[in-house]
UniProtKB/TrEMBL annotation:
<dbReference type="InterPro" id="IPR015424">
    <property type="entry name" value="PyrdxlP-dep_Trfase"/>
</dbReference>
<dbReference type="InterPro" id="IPR015422">
    <property type="entry name" value="PyrdxlP-dep_Trfase_small"/>
</dbReference>
<keyword id="KW-0456">Lyase</keyword>
<dbReference type="InterPro" id="IPR001597">
    <property type="entry name" value="ArAA_b-elim_lyase/Thr_aldolase"/>
</dbReference>
<comment type="similarity">
    <text>Belongs to the beta-eliminating lyase family.</text>
</comment>
<comment type="subunit">
    <text>Homotetramer.</text>
</comment>
<keyword id="KW-0663">Pyridoxal phosphate</keyword>
<protein>
    <submittedName>
        <fullName>Tryptophanase</fullName>
    </submittedName>
</protein>
<dbReference type="InterPro" id="IPR015421">
    <property type="entry name" value="PyrdxlP-dep_Trfase_major"/>
</dbReference>
<dbReference type="InterPro" id="IPR011166">
    <property type="entry name" value="Beta-eliminating_lyase"/>
</dbReference>
<feature type="domain" description="Aromatic amino acid beta-eliminating lyase/threonine aldolase">
    <location>
        <begin position="47"/>
        <end position="430"/>
    </location>
</feature>
<dbReference type="Pfam" id="PF01212">
    <property type="entry name" value="Beta_elim_lyase"/>
</dbReference>
Length: 466
C-alpha cells in the first residue's frame, strides 16, 4: 500500500479562520460588487486567491528577522541576501526590490533603450508566456509582449509533462525574421499563465541558445523556480538523481538576468530580486533606476528583516521534502476534482489547480466571464475564494476597445505554501463538486462598473439571465 506523504513541518502558531453562513457570504459578495477581489479577507474561510506572499514563514525565517540590519545603506542583510543569490544561482550582482514587478519596472526600459540603440524600431519581448504585470511593464516600456507557448498547453485535457515549453519553431522563426527588434526572451518558470506548468531543461537550453546565438539577452522570470526544478527531477530521467540545487544551477546557467517575485518560491510575504550574472554595466544602470523607484541599492523597498527572511526562504525553497509535500498537496486537490469529472488543466500545475470553466459553463460567453461566475458560486457555497484567469483578466484591446480573446477561462485554486492542510483541500474539493452539480443554474455576469485598465481588481458586476 502506498503511504501518504506527511508535511515536513509541524504547526507552532495558528491563525484562526472564520466560517460564515451562506447569508453572510451573500451579503459580503453583493457588497463586493460580485468581485471576490473586493471581499474583506475576514469574510473568506479558505483563501486560494493567490500563492503570492500568502505562505507561512518558518521559525528560522522569523528568527532571522530579528537579526535584520535596518541600515539605510550597506545593510548586513543585503550582503547576506546577495551571497545567497551567488551561492544558489551563480549570479554576481543582486538588486533587492519590493516585489517581482519592481524588478520589471527598473529593468525593462533599460533593455528597450539598448535594443533601440542597436536598431530596433518595433521592440518586442518573446516569452513562453508573460505574466500579466510582466506584459504590462513591457508595454509601459514601449515594447510588445509576444507569447510563444507550445500548442499542447491550450488543450487542458491533453496530458503533457512540459506544457510550459516554448514552441521552438515559432521562436526560431521570430529570431530569423525579426531579430533586430527582439529586446530579450523571458523564460517564465513555471509558466503561471497556462496553469503553473513546467518548462523542460531541454527546452530552456534550446530557447536560450537560439537567443544567445543571435545576441539576444535571456531573462528568467523566476517566481516559481524551485517548483520547476522539482518537476524536472520528477519527469526527466536524466535528472532523477540530481539534487534540486544542481538542477536550479543548470537552469539559471542559461540566463543573463533574472527577475524574481520572492513572494512565491522565495517564501516571504514581500520581496523580489533583479539579478545579473556578469553584466556589470547593465547592473549599474539598473541600480541607478532602483534608487528613485524602489529605494537605495542595498534595500530596494524592503526592510533589512525582509531581506534576511528572503535569504533563508530561498534556501528552504530548495528543500526536497518541502517540494515533494507542496506539489503533492496541489496534486491531491487536482486529482480529487478529476475523480469527480471536473475538468482541469492536466497534468496538475505546481502552485494551483486551474479549473476549466469553459467546459463547466459552455453556454456562458467569454464576455460574461464563466470563470468569475464559478468563483462567485464557490465562494457563496463555501467561503472559499478563488481567482479568475480568463477574459476578465485579459481585458480589452486599448486601440479597438474590443474584448481581447483569452486562451483560457480558468478558475485558479491557488495553494499558499505551508499554510493549509489536506483537510482544507478536501473541503475545497467537496464544495466545488457540489457547485458544479448545480452549474446550469449559474447566471452570467455583466459589468456594473468597468475600470479602463486592470479591471479585474476593482470592477463591479451584476447577474443577467441566460
Ligand atoms: N511573474 C510571475 C510568473 C508571476 O506569477 C508574478 C505574480 C509576477 C511575475 C509578479 O510578481 O506580484 O511580486 O510583483 N503573480 C501573482 C499571482 C500576483 O497571483 O500569480 P509580483
Amino acid at each position: 500500500m502506498s503511504r501518504s506523504i506527511p508535511e515536513p513541518w509541524r504547526i507552532k502558531m495558528v491563525e484562526p479562520i472564520r466560517m460564515t453562513t451562506k447569508a453572510q457570504r451573500k451579503s459580503a459578495l453583493i457588497e463586493a460588487g460580485l468581485n471576490p477581489f473586493i471581499l474583506k479577507s475576514e469574510d473568506v474561510f479558505i483563501d486560494l486567491l493567490t500563492d503570492s506572499g500568502t505562505g507561512a514563514m518558518s521559525d528560522r525565517q522569523w528568527a532571522n528577522m530579528f537579526l535584520g540590519d535596518e541600515a539605510y545603506a550597506g545593510s548586513k542583510s543585503y550582503y547576506l541576501l546577495s551571497q545567497t543569490v551567488e551561492q544558489l544561482f551563480d549570479f554576481q550582482y543582486t538588486i533587492p526590490v519590493h516585489q517581482g514587478r519592481g524588478a520589471e519596472q527598473i529593468l525593462f526600459p533599460l533593455l528597450v533603450e539598448l535594443a533601440k540603440e542597436k536598431g530596433a524600431s518595433e521592440p518586442v519581448f518573446l516569452s513562453n508566456h508573460h505574466f500579466d504585470t510582466t506584459k504590462a511593464h513591457v508595454e509601459i516600456a514601449g515594447a510588445k509582449a509576444k507569447n510563444l507557448i507550445c500548442a499542447s498547453s491550450l488543450q487542458t485535457e491533453i496530458v503533457d509533462d512540459w506544457k510550459g515549453n516554448f514552441d521552438l519553431n515559432k521562436l526560431s522563426n521570430e529570431i530569423k525574421h525579426n531579430c533586430k527588434n527582439i529586446v530579450a526572451i523571458i523564460i517564465t518558470i513555471t509558466c503561471n499563465s497556462v496553469g503553473g506548468q513546467p518548462i523542460s531543461m531541454g527546452n530552456i537550453h534550446s530557447a536560450a541558445r537560439m537567443a544567445r546565438d543571435s545576441g539576444i539577452p535571456v531573462i528568467i522570470d523566476a517566481a516559481r523556480f524551485a517548483e520547476n526544478a522539482y518537476f524536472i527531477k520528477q519527469r526527466d530521467s536524466q535528472f532523477s538523481h540530481e539534487s534540486i540545487s544542481k538542477i536550479v544551477k543548470e537552469m539559471f546557467s542559461e540566463a543573463d538576468i533574472f527577475t524574481m517575485s520572492a513572494k512565491k518560491d522565495g517564501m516571504v510575504n514581500i520581496g523580489g530580486l533583479c539579478c545579473f550574472r556578469n553584466n556589470e554595466s547593465l547592473f549599474r544602470q539598473a541600480q541607478t533606476r532602483c534608487v528613485p523607484m524602489e529605494g537605495f541599492i542595498t534595500y530596494g523597498g524592503l526592510a533589512g528583516r525582509d531581506m534576511a527572511a528572503m535569504a533563508i526562504g530561498l534556501q528552504e525553497a530548495l528543500n526536497e521534502d518541502h517540494l515533494r509535500s507542496r506539489i503533492a498537496q496541489v496534486e491531491y486537490l487536482g486529482h480529487k476534482l478529476q475523480q469527480s469529472g471536473i475538468p482541469i488543466q492536466t497534468p496538475v500545475g505546481g502552485h494551483a489547480v486551474f479549473v476549466d470553466a469553459r467546459k463547466i459553463l459552455p453556454d456562458i460567453k467569454p464576455e460574461n466571464f464563466p470563470a468569475q461566475v464559478l468563483c462567485n458560486a464557490l465562494y457563496l457555497e463555501s467561503g472559499v475564494r478563488a481567482v479568475e484567469i480568463g477574459s476578465l483578466m485579459m481585458g480589452r484591446d486599448p486601440m479597438t476597445g474590443q474584448q481581447e480573446p483569452s486562451l483560457f477561462e480558468f478558475m485558479r485554486l491557488t495553494i499558499p505554501r505551508r499554510t493549509y492542510t489536506d483537510n482544507h483541500m478536501n473541503y475545497v474539493a467537496d464544495s466545488l463538486i457540489d457547485v458544479v452539480k448545480k452549474a446550469d443554474m449559474l447566471k452570467p455576469l455583466e459589468f456594473e462598473y468597468e475600470p479602463k485598465i486592470l479591471r479585474q481588481f476593482t470592477a463591479r458586476f451584476r447577474e443577467i439571465e441566460r
